[in-house]
Amino acid sequence: MPSATENSMTTVANETHTPRSQTAEQNPGAAGAPQQDPGGRGRTWLAIIVLAVVAVAIYAGIRARAQAEAKLAHATALSSVPPVDVVYPRLGSASQEIALPGNMQPYIDTPIYARTSGYLRKWYFDIGAHVRKGQLLATIETPELDQQLAQAKAQLKNAQANLQLAQITAARWQHLLKTNSVSQQSTDQAVSDLASKQAILASNEANVRRLEQLQAYENIYAPFDGVITQRKTDIGDLIQAGENNPPQELFHLASIRTLRVYIPVPEVYTDAVRTGEKVAITLDEYPGRTFTGTLVRNSDAIDMATRTLNVEVDVANPDGLLRPGSYAFVHLTVPPVAGAVTIPSNTLLFRSEGLRAGVVRDGHAHLVPITIGHDYGSSVEVVSGLKPTDAVILDPSDSLEDGQPVQVVRSAQP
Predict the structure, then answer these.
(1) Positions of the chain with pLDDT lower than 50, given as ranges
(2) Angstrom distance (rounded) from CA 101 to CA 331
(3) Which of 217, 263, 304, 359 could pair covalently with 116 via S-S, beta carbons 3.0-4.6 A apart?
């Protein structure tokens, strides 16, 4: 019994060997031309169009993905090379002015004491009075000293009389000795007594001069031109002078025609101190006004406690506008350092190994060690490590490493 597969193959073979005439008879309209199937052709074109649409969709997807990957790779590359802004150092450094505080002091400032003891009889000038050298300031009444002087003068007269008698006796004894009327011993005693009387007379004369000098101190005079800043006595006060008594100040006299201002100059600015240079002086009590002083001298030694140099500035005060004790500011100009450059403060990198600045060279960042001179606030003076042609990175990141690739986005010329 034949299988279903063999029956199918027999049927197909019979259909294949069907005579052309039979086909033509069955389809008389297709005689002499090949027969076409309109429905099959449409399905073929539809399949082709679908395949084309699918191919276009696949291509578009692949292309979009490739573009996204390219953009991602470009973004990754850009993120790995950070953008930076750079600035070029400015050659030289600005002249800096520093204001140092100081107290104005009189050119001469001295207390006036009494040299002799007594009672204050009268004073002639009070505080604020301007006096000239040699003017009488006060007088002291010294009754005990007057009595001592009178006694000393009396002793002096007695010594003079004794000396006169000793001279006569010594001359007489020496004359008698020539005739051997007196002994040599008596003559020698007379001559020795004369020498003793001469010494006593000299002592009394010195004592009188001492007391007269003390009596002259009853009048107190101004030792120089100045102003009375203090009066610490009054009429009737007991004045005790002498080595065994503490000194009692009567007046305080200050010379204010020229004033001194002492300022402590920090060690780093000592090169700005030049003797003879003119400087500006300002005071809060005279806003907007500047006085001129002169650097006259300095201690030429650094104070180890404060690390400063003591400098004296003298300022003329002919009109008396400036007062001793006033708080003043002395303005010193610090000259620029030769070969230095100036960069903004936001370019500095503080690292454990020291101060650094980021410099762009050949597309890479280099951390250059620098040395700072003066700090101007928004900018700093660099005395070594940088040149005017170096492109210094602005606002560098703390993670910036030496040799790291960077991309310069914007550069600012000095």
Answers:
(1) 1-34
(2) 9
(3) 217
Q: Mind listing the pLDDT tens digit for each residue in 378-414?
A: 888 888 888 888 889 998 888 888 888 888 887 766 5
306 and 374 part of one domain: no
Residues 311, 352, single domain; the answer is no
In the three-class reduction of DSSP (H, G, I as helix; E, B as strand; rest coil), residue 332 is classed as strand
The Cα 380–Cα 288 span in angstroms is 29
Supply the range of the domain harboring residue 308.
Answer: 255-334
Which residues, including other chains, have CB under 8 Å from residue 91's CB and lie 6 or more apart?
Answer: 341, 388, 414
What total number of domains does the chain contain?
3
Backbone phi, then psi, for 273, in 5-degree steps? -90, 115
**Going by C-beta distance under 8 Å and a sequence separation of 6 or more, which residues neighbour residue 394?**
84, 85, 86, 87, 344, 346, 347, 412
Assess whether 170 and 200 both reside in one domain. Answer: yes
Pair 192, 263 in one domain: no
Cα–Cα dist 163/152, whole Å: 16
Q: What's this model's pTM, rounded to 2 decimal places?
A: 0.57
